[in-house]
Known about the structure:
Layout: H1 2-15, H2 17-26, H3 28-32, E1 33-35, E2 43-45, E3 62-68, E4 71-83, E5 105-113, H4 120-144, E6 164-172, H5 174-185, E7 193-197, E8 207-216, H6 217-227, H7 231-246, H8 255-272, H9 279-286, E9 315-318, H10 320-324, H11 333-344, E10 348-351, H12 357-365, E11 382-384, E12 389-391, E13 397-400, H13 405-418, E14 422-426, E15 429-432, H14 437-444, E16 452-453, H15 457-463, E17 468-472, H16 475-490, E18 495-497, E19 503-507, H17 513-524, E20 531-535, H18 541-546, E21 549-553, H19 558-563, E22 566-568, H20 575-584
Parallel strand pairs: 2-4, 5-6, 6-8, 9-10, 9-20, 15-16, 20-21, 21-22
Antiparallel strand pairs: 1-3, 3-4, 4-5, 7-8, 11-12, 12-13, 14-15, 14-17, 17-19, 18-19
Amino acid sequence: MLARRSSLLRILRRRDPEMARALLRAVPFASSLRSSSALHSQTVHLGAAASSSPLGTSLFGNKVGFFGAGNEKQLTGLCGRVWASQRGYRKVRRRAAKSKDRELELNASICIEEDLPDDLEILSIAELLRLNVPMAMKLAFDGLKDATYQTRDTAIDDVGGFQSVELSVLLCNDDFIRKLNKEWRDEDHATDVLSMSQHVAGLKLPILMLGDIVISVETAARQAEERGHTLLDEIRILMVHGLLHLLGFDHELSEEAEAEMEKEEELLLKSLGWKGKGLIQSAYDTKTDTDLRAENPDDRKREGSLRFYKPKFSYIFCDMDGTLLNSESRISLTNAKALKEALSRGVKVVIASGKARPAVINILQMVDLAGKDGVISQFTPGVFVQGLLVYGRQGREIYRRNLEPDVCREAFIYSREHGIPLIAFCEDRCLTLFEHPLVDSLHTIYKEPKAEIMPSIEDLLAAADIQKIIFLDAAEGVATNLRPYWSEATGARANVVQAVPDMLEIVPPGTSKGSGVKMLLDHLGVAPKEVMAIGDGENDIEMLELASLGIALSNGSEKTKAVANVIGVSNDEDGVADAIYRYAF
């Protein structure tokens, strides 16, 4: 269709330059949506059966350029050509006999916008539309003959006066149709279907350039679920609605116009044998509104919609405490669904946490995100214990760093003398000197391994290598006593870090969660530009700086938010899900 317009304009420029200039002014969308390569075609004869012409086959993969807002986009296109007056089969001869009645050629271009990912269902629907659209055009044109409408714009009347009719149908997502809706109608929200007429009344042309129908398959999928039919059914309904708009029907003019268009929709769908009511009646039945501004006031994708978008990142690195976990140390169902949806779209989610790996597995098991197809297992990569234990491909350990025994000894002496509980993290074990409610909370609330009570400091130090130690106290005690004291006492022998206000962690010097993430990326051969990272604590700063997009949740520390590219909503507002739906696709 679009390539034919270019050819037509070349002819008009030679024969009638003024008419060519008028046509260019009248069809802005045609000049912005044009073919960058010749489309293959297929000839189909409507009737009880259909046959393919040996002249060519319509294939996916043809490229059509869309130039909008100064940016060229690529669309996948296919074109179906239908001879409307022909019915059934006819005998193939070397030379076709001349017919006194000229056949009206119906050309339908089916395009898929480039930002819509490859999806078998959508590709299958596009292939069906290649035949369905010309069939709907044929029946719609037949319905105009000898019909008397009170409200239809009759700018398109005698279709038989043209040699051919051109129509394009574009399948896209909500982002694309929202931008188009803003540009064409100055309405900044997504919608289900837009129709843009290219017909110029008064120009005597051999081709009727009917126009363009743009359908959001994202909105169509949502409406199909609400209305209890398939995505194909809904797209057909939207296509019929858009086609009738191009033929002069407009339900927004008056109640009479709405009734007339509604009747024509239902008649056309019934004649085609397609399921579903017309779009007008469906909207009334389900009490849905095509104005989606109240539901989605910004660029955040909806739950379940990620199949209609390509991922911007290959990996999402995510912290646990204060980030994926809410203030009750639980993963919300909304966060869990977002992670599952991201995984289903091929994005790899990697945990980077101060927690030990068993604790993370235990927590994610509760929302069915641990195991072979989940976020974590014994065989998946991850960064744990503040980057002191890093696991690579197949979950194999690629890095381990232990804390100096002298630092550990001094800390446990301090713990025993002051009665402040201290936990030693030793790979998959936790060790301590005495029982305490805060020690129990580390297991019951934070799901860390249950601490083993050791009889003495020397027994504890001899039991296993220690990667880090954690003091547990009230937030005020950590801030006013523990942190100042141990920042000075450790000197260059260790670093003092905080992930949450009521814990103080002492780790080996020169190590961090960020360094562990960098080591893992190098091991996996992943560039930082492929990574989005989400965190909240000071121990997440290096990780957020390393990633292409670093997101600090609003509940995070001021230092962390200062280095982030984006500040998201809090961990109690499903901050991880919001970040995924807003920025990852």
